[in-house]
Input
Amino acid sequence: MKRSLILLASIFLIISCNDGKTKKERRILSDSSGNINQLTVVIENELWEGEVGEAIRTNFAAPVDGLPQEEPLFSLSQIPPETFSGFVRNSRIFLKIEDSTPKGMDLFEDEFARPQTGVVLMGDNSEELIDVINEKSDSIVKLLKKTELTEKQRRIRKSLKKDDALSEKFGLKLKFPSAYRYAKEDEHFSWIRKEIPKGSMEILVYEVPINQIENDSSVIANIIEMRDSIGEAQIPGRLKGSYMITEKAYAPYLFETEIDGKFAYETRGTWEVANDFMAGPFVNYAVKDEENNRFVILEGFVFSPSRGKRDNIFELDAILQSAEFE
Output
């Protein structure tokens, strides 16, 4: 009898838990679709062709920092509201503009597909819509980029390279696809490469003492000096006496961020080759590891002349941000 009561109580508990789930959690959703950094914009044609559309393009198709040629944050694909149905609603990220009140913003997660992030901006007229677009765009871009980064990392995990070298050398795990190969290794430096049509994508991992970056000089000047010294020592160009350096014509962008819960300096800019004609974009994370009195340097750079590089850098970024310290 006692066992029967316990069984009944357990069944009741399970049923209660299931009933507590929202209908949304119980729904079966399709997989979301779309290329990485492809943003579906749901808006009336008339608004898209006017000042509201211009505000959207200014904010969401702005140039990506650190690329040698202008490439947009997102590739925008506009559709009118009446066509936003069926499989079209499976877009992984979408921005919907509604001429309605009250003025504001709504967020949707996994509304029509999974994973999915949707943003609805509302305003009573064009002026209100432009105001809310300009006001909310920075936070929306960060949100959508986070969704895309997570999706890119998910795709990368489908075909990971088995690697222990970075763990043994730096106490670090990095998730990168099996298409990447080690191009050069020594005791304190690793260079990993993926060949692409007419170019390559590169990853560098090394470490420097904390006071090499944080001292009485400016951080960005120290990072540039560090990159250039590594370039001269480790990354030769095609011609004798040539090597990779930070482009001198434009100062890189410097941000503060975190990698695996550790403080990091994020630097984005353009590299070039001293005494040769080669160049491309790079992203560099100097991750502060105070326990070991070091900065671990994670860098990705691309060589792909006459081609877009936004998506290449985004892939490298997704790999570098997957870093886990042991």
The CA atoms of residues 230 and 244 lie 8 Å apart. The longest strand covers residues 262-274. Residues 1-17 have pLDDT under 50 and may be disordered. The chain has eight helices and 17 strands.
